[in-house]
Structures are given as structure tokens and as C-alpha cells.
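Dear U.,

Please find below the material for section 3 of the report. The protein was modelled together with flavin-adenine dinucleotide; I have listed the sequence and SMILES used, followed by the predicted complex structure.
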Amino acid sequence: MTFEFQRSVFQEEHEAFRRGVRAFLEAEVVPQYSKWEEDGYTPREIWRRAGEVGLLGTSIAEEYGGSGGDFKFDAIVLEELGRLNLAAPAWDMHAYIVAPFLTHFGTGEQKRHWLPRMVEGSVISAIGLTEPNAGSDLADIRTRAKREGNGYRIDGSKIFITNGIIADLVLLAAKTSLELGAKGVSLFLVDTKTPGFRRGRKLKKVGNHAQDTAELFFYDMQVPADALLGENENQGWMQLMHGLAQERMVVAVRSMAMARSAFDTTLEHVRNRVAFGKPIASFQNTRFKLAEIETDIDVGQPFVDRCIASLAEDRLSPEMAAKAKLWTTELADRVLDECVQLHGGYGYMWEYPVARAWADARVHRIYAGTNEIMKQIISRNYLDRERQR
Ligand SMILES: Cc1cc2nc3c(=O)[nH]c(=O)nc-3n(C[C@H](O)[C@H](O)[C@H](O)COP(=O)(O)OP(=O)(O)OC[C@H]3O[C@@H](n4cnc5c(N)ncnc54)[C@H](O)[C@@H]3O)c2cc1C
């Protein structure tokens, strides 16, 4: 008797939610996606619609307008976006990366002000960490927030900011105490209407064309004291270490879904495409490549599922999140590259989902912390463990 593993991380309530998400994406996102790719950003109306159907508040508490679920519901949305190769709208950045910072560290007033608007999609959010001179080395950011009057004066700039062009709210990292290095970082909730806030170029990217990515500038930008996330200054590094683990899982879940989707599409393609009088699927090379891909996905999925379950219970360590991000993004890149190859010239045409997925997924190894930084996180305690023996 053969036995196929059934995923056990999701229950019927999640699968019912998945069916709704899938129907919504197929009806309201897929038909417009090519237009958004040409525009280079997504319109506000689709954010509102996502809010109406409950995609933006899956894990936000009911008192702030959300559904009060956990990361498993977020993962469902991410898997469906990944399955359909939809890199935009960047709801993941907004609802599953920025919003949890507010949930975990925001004051009551900050949550009451921002979360309901984020859930309904009337406020679009972004996170501003990376600077022209500091990406992997976040401790070296130069954006400065100086106490002045009843608030802070912020000067500096950011680069590569997802949703930077369309955002109403930017969760911004700035140094409040220069002498403390990484420990002198604080996070601020910046309303993009604040005088002194300026958007720069909408950057042209290799993939993710429907998602805007921008430069941001702050010059003599005065924010009120209560724009500081939480009650105290210099908590930013701790807040980031907590929040970035979730960001890494967001990327991991999407990467797995994209790999699985590429496998399915490619299987279909090689069954139908004929060369030398036979379906491409009949060549041993094709079958072996697909066998390797399917094995990698089937072996990896249970690990990712365990991480999803741990994160849903707020028990996932930064090291495990880093492992998930490192492994799944390398897998997705490898799989997508093979799938493009098995599509031949069609695999290089933008109208083919596999081509778009290949270009879109490449950045997964770079953002949310590069994969080299993931290896640093995973290995940083090796020396301590050795000493403790
Ligand atoms: C499409 C896109 C969207 C993004 N969205 C956002 C966003 O919304 N918000 C945001 O804040 N940022 C965002 N980023 C920025 C992203 O997080 C950074 O690009 C990333 O962290 C790498 O930083 P960097 O580009 O400065 O590269 P660098 O830090 O200059 O790294 C260059 C290379 O050096 C390697 N390297 C660096 N340090 C080490 C080390 N100690 N050991 C070994 N190797 C090392 C890196 O791994 C990399 O291979 C986005 C980037 C892209 C491309």
C-alpha cells in the first residue's frame, strides 16, 4: 500500500479560508495583474477590496478589526499568492510583517490608531530599514532621530523600500543614541504626509514588476513623541530581531508555494510538448529532473509546516526562521531555474508563469536578510555551545 503524506498543519477552517482566498485572487487580482506590472504599482482599490474580504487582518486582534487568527491564516494567503505567482500587492509586507510590529510592541493608542485602518486597507504600510550604505549591516544605519521639542527631528534616507511609493505609513528605523550602535536604534511610525518626508525614484527591478520599490528621504522631518514605536527609545534592535523572524517565514512560505506551483506547471508542459516524436516528459532527463524537484519539495514541506505551526504559537526561534528562509529560497531558485530550462524558449517568455516566477523569486535570497546573513544567524552560537561543553 502506498502512503502519501498529508499536510497536518492546517485544519478545515484554514482550508475553507483558502478556498475563499483562491476565488478572490482568481476573480479580482489575476485579471488585472499584467496591467499592474506595466504600471509598476498596485491601485488602492484592490487594497480596499482585500480589506473587505478579510485578507489584511487575518492575524490581527478582533478589537482592532482583524479576524483574531494566527500565522496559519497568513500562511494560507501567502501560499495562494505564491501558487498564482502574484508578487503583488505586497499584502505580506503590510499585514504580516509591519502589522505584527504594532501588535507586539505598539502602545494601545498606536494600535487603535493604525491597525483598524491597516485591516480595512485604507492605510498602506511599508518598512524602512535599508539605507544606501547599510543593508546587511543594519547596525550601521545613519538615519538620525534627535529629540527636539515635543517630538523628534528625523534626517536621513532609505532605499529599496517595498510599497514606498504607495505607503501612507512607514515603520522607520533611525538611530536615537549614536553612541550605543545597534542598541541605539528605535522604530518610528511615520505618517507619509509629514512635512519633510519625500519619496524618491520608483526603482526598476529585475522582477516583482507590479510591486513598487522606492527611495525615501527625510529632511528636517518633525514627528511627535508618540510616533516612537512602544514606550521607550532604543528598543528597535530587540523589536527587529523579533519581527524579522516572521519576515523570514513569510519569504519561506511563499518560496515553497512558488516551487510547488512551478513543478505543477512544468509537469503539465512536458506532458504536452512533443520533441523527436515524443512528449518531453518521456525523456529520462526530464523525469529525473522532475523527480529531484518533487522529492526536494516533499522533503522540505514538513519542516516548513513545523515552522509555521511554531510561529503560530509564537515559539519559533530566529535560528529556525533563518534555516527555513535559507533552505526554501535556495530550493525555489534551483527549482525555478530547472523549470525554465524544461520549458525551453517558452520558459523565457514573460507571458509564461514560470518565467515570471523565476525572475520574481530571485530576490528571495537577497531580501529579508541575505542568505549569507541567515548562515551567520544560524551559526552565531556555535562558539558559545563549544565553550559550554
Ligand atoms: C526588491 C527588494 C525589496 C526590498 N524591500 C525592502 C523593504 O521593504 N524594506 C527594507 O528596509 N529593505 C528592503 N530591501 C532591502 C534588502 O533587505 C537588502 O537589499 C538586503 O538586506 C541586502 O542589503 P544590501 O542590498 O545593502 O547588500 P549588502 O549588505 O551590501 O550585501 C552585499 C553582499 O555581501 C554579502 N554580505 C554582507 N555582509 C556579509 C557578511 N557579514 N558575511 C558574508 N557576506 C556578507 C551579502 O550577503 C550580499 O551577498 C529590499 C530589497 C529588494 C531588492
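For the text of the report, you could mention the following: Residues 92 and 250 are 7 Å apart (CA to CA).

Regards,
Y.
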